[in-house]
Amino acid sequence: MVEESGRRKRPNILVTGTPGTGKTTTCTALAEATQLRHINVGDLVRDKNLHDGWDDELDCFVLNEDLVCDELEDQMEEGGNIVDYHGCDFFPERWFDCVVVLQTDNTVLYDRLSRRGYNESKLSNNIECEIFQVLLEEAKESYPEDRVIAMKSDTIEDINRNVSTLTDWVRNWHLTS
Length: 177
Known about the structure:
The protein has eight helices and seven strands. By secondary structure, the protein is α/β, with parallel strands linked by helices.
């Protein structure tokens, strides 16, 4: 694996977590600090029709994983990407040098999702997902453990600290790859 990631000049980072944990905020700030490319998979799916229709119950597009992976393949091989998505198990393992799982206290998360106007079903589904650490488990099952890092994301201070930590990691990546 080191040989493969070593061929890229810049690392690829996946930032995942339950909706409302601060992925897009973190990725936007990290992209600005590191000059890596921020890829918001939700926006990509919507803008390029990489979906199989709309799910009325979950109030979102039904992601077509194959179309998303095909769309991203060349960019990911090139390196220098921060991928922002609430799932992670369908991306090829070889794509990522670091997998960040953002975690947020349930009360904070509930307030954030309520402000977004999530319906009760979607709200409770996402809170349960966070309580049971579904995305952390998914990341640990999908990627080598030494690439997966959980980061607290309750406050703007947490986000700033996470961005700073990840910026340092990016700056030192070529030394460790």
